[in-house]
Structure formats: structure tokens, C-alpha cells
Amino acid sequence: MKELVERIKAEGVHVGGGIVKVDGFLNHQVDTDLAAAMGAHFANRFREAGVTGITKVITAEVSGIAPALATAQALAAPLIFARKHRSSIVTEDYYHAAVTSRTKGDIVNLMLSRKYLNADDSVLIIDDFLATGSTVGVLAGLIAESGARLKGIGCVIEKPAEGGRARLSRLQVPIIALARIELEGDRLVVS
Fold it and tell me: What crossing angle do the helices spanning 65-75 and 32-48 adopt, rounded to 10°?
């Protein structure tokens, strides 16, 4: 996606440890026009891959919400985001799993309400980054636990060197990235 690649080239910064900062348009301040274009692009790419009948789009809070919402809107499907914290007013039962945060290095609990995800659902996972694949892998596990069918995985930015795509290949679903980043020292190579 040319517009996204250009924004990453102009604003993306490697802050060390393989972490790439794109908070000016994706995961702190959101460029809503770009987010809408990403959602439409994901919807079209999944249709081209033969993925149809999506009933839910799932992501992990917080950074995946904007692109997942735009994708859900383009597909006329509800968005569910996996919560990281259980609210005191939330009483329903959850699918629950823990994952190590790539950016923070600590354990994060992800929870999906059983009320909103069941065996009748066909699901896409949309997230901001695909690095090691651990967050997407945990979300896929929660989807499998619900009995729903995972139909595809979309990530705004993939970092191929971290091996996430290979780790997720066992899921046997299309994996679509809108941009890819390789690091050459501190320099970002974006395609």
C-alpha cells in the first residue's frame, strides 16, 4: 500500500531493539483517512484471496483497534477487541490467555467475551504489527477455543526478520501485510 509505505519512510523511527515507532499516524495519533484506506485495502485483499463471509474482526487493544475498526467497517462486520484488563463492571465469562508483549517485555492477559464470539463466527484477525507472531497466535488460540473459524490474518506492518509469518503458517490461512520493514542497522527499509 503505497501511501502507508511513504508514511513509514517519512515518519517511522527505529528506537532500538527492533522496535519501530509509527505513533504519529498509527498507534498513538491515528490518521483516520489512512486508517480507512487500510481497512478498504484489507477488505479487498482478503476478497481477492477468496476470504468471504466474515462475521467478526478481532484485534488486541489498543494499537490494533484503528485498523481493525476500519477493516470491520469495510466488511460490514462487528469488531471485537481483546481486553488487557478486566473492568469491575464486566461480569460475563471470557476466553483468556497470556502473551509476552513485544514492546514492553511483560506478560499481557488477553480476554475475549464468550458473549460475542462463538462457533457460528468466521473471523479475521487484524493487528498493527506482525513481528514474532505471539499476540496473533494467542488470539488465534482464543478463536479456536470458541469454536469460531479463523479465515485470515492481516497486519499493517510486518517485520519479516522476526519470523512471525513462519510461526503462524501452521494456521493455514492467508496472511496479508500492507507494508514490510527490514532493519539495516538503524535504517528502515520499507516495502
Answer: 60
